Amino acid sequence: MSRLPASIDPQLLCTLGGTGFRNWLNRFLLDQQTEPVLFPWFQRLSPQEQESLCADLELILSEPDETGEPLDVREIGEILTEYAGYAGWSGSPLAQSLPAEETAFAIDVRPKELRTLQSAAPGVRRAVEEIFTQFLAVSPNDPARLRSCNVKKMADRAIRQIDLPDDYRLRYFVDDPNRVVYVVYLGPHPQGQADGRERAVRALINRRRNERL
């Protein structure tokens, strides 16, 4: 077994690979002021360094969608350690543990869509964060749980659509065996089916099922 670099704590890698951290990181890319604050050193970075960190995280989180390979948790740990060092932070790059209730389902969403929402109205961003934390991460198969937005099942597909403020839409697919919610579309009302990621997600799930046979 290879030995981890001294700068990467094995317990840190375990946390970074967990559902709670992944869901929190989605919210962080949507709003860098999100609570709880897990990167206490972030505000010490220059604006350019903050933008660079978000871009690096976005790139890593996009790789599984493009390559089919698992998320490189070790690389995330190395990047966080590196940027914490830029900020003069000597402790762990994570400040605290995550709430256990956020770990029911992992939310797999393309980072570029989260970053695009930064230009949306505050009401849209608040609605997305509420949907992530109070619905998709907890009980995505129970639309009645989400009272603030309309949820409907799209025709002939196991895809549900949530109507957001300002005519934005969120479409998602629930992979129950693996406890993952795939956001297949997030943005302004799509023209056409906007199903490019839907096909990719279905192919991924079918491949995993075949591997278990």
Question: Could you describe the 3D structure shown?
Answer:
The chain is α+β, with helices and mostly antiparallel strands. It has 2 domains: 10-86, no CATH class; 104-212, 2-Layer Sandwich (YaeB-like fold). Helix content is 43%, strand content 13%. The protein has 7 helices and 5 strands; from the N terminus they run ααααβααββββα. It has a 5-stranded mixed sheet, with helices on both faces. A hairpin with a 6-residue loop joins strand 2 and strand 3 (160-163). Helix 3 (47-67) runs antiparallel to helix 4.
Q: What does the secondary structure layout of this molecule look like, with pairings?
A:
Blueprint: H1 10-16, H2 19-30, H3 47-67, H4 73-86, E1 106-108, H5 111-116, H6 122-136, E2 151-153, E3 160-163, E4 168-175, E5 180-188, H7 196-212
Parallel strand pairs: 1-5
Antiparallel strand pairs: 2-3, 3-4, 4-5
What is the CATH superfamily label of the largest domain? RelE-like
Poorly predicted segments: 1-6
Domain count: the total is 2
The description of the largest β-sheet is:
5 strands, mixed
Q: Which descriptors apply to this entry?
A:
single chain; YaeB-like fold; 7 helices; 2 domains; 213 residues
Please sum up the structure shown.
This protein is an alpha+beta fold and 213 residues long. Helix content is 43%, strand content 13%.
